[in-house]
Amino acid sequence: LQFVDNVCWASASTADGDDDGVYDKNDLCPNTTTGLAVDTDGCSDSDNDGFDTDLEIDCNTDPNDPLSFPTDIDNDQTCDYLDTDKDGDGYLDADEIAAGTDHLDPTSKPANRLPECSVYYNLEIDGIPTSFDGEAAIPALSGVTATTAASALTPTTVTIPAGSYYITAHCIDPDGDDVTVTVNDITVGPMAGEVSGAALIEIGEDVEETIDVQITWSDGTDSLTALVTVELDGDSGGFIPGFGASLAIMALIGAGFVLVRKDD
What we know:
Layout: E1 2-4, E2 7-9, H1 53-58, H2 93-99, E3 116-123, H3 146-152, E4 156-160, E5 163-172, E6 178-183, E7 186-192, E8 194-203, E9 210-218, E10 223-232
């Protein structure tokens, strides 16, 4: 028996999967394209530049020109032609180009973008919402970066009739980072790219006419906190709208929900 690339072969084996004349037990390139001339190790290097002919073809270099050979900027064993993150900085080349950073420089990275959080409300009797499709009571509590977002967080108010409601913060991260959201004193997450948290409040003339809901969210790099004020609508005439009155409920995969009841 003999071992080649951690594979045990019978010494008498004559298997040759790519029909290049070199037995698989001795073949360092066991998938050579049919018809290519190979060396004794089973690899083909037409221009003797040290790179296998099939590799050069895959990497869009000229296998017959010794001055044309694959490059690998981040040394991750994937040639740059096939590498979607050429500088190995964790950001896709397409995202870096869109952000205006250098996709060939590992020290040049896009600015972190915070999750965008929208605030919804619905009646307690309708249950915690499981999806969001429609106009939010307070949309997009965020910005591109923590600096711009902080200045954009103007005082936010939701005016609703008397009743018991779920106040839900639904956050989506444009970078796909893990997101954590806290509504009052309950934390949900981290969850990949998207998360929701809900607090149950009761508002009315005989309970409280103004309730503050604190919402904090983070993507692991930056975080923001916003205060949402829920006010009693004195002109509602007793009508209590439901979540379904303004939003169509659809299934949402991957959102987490936690309930906290506000003490009277």
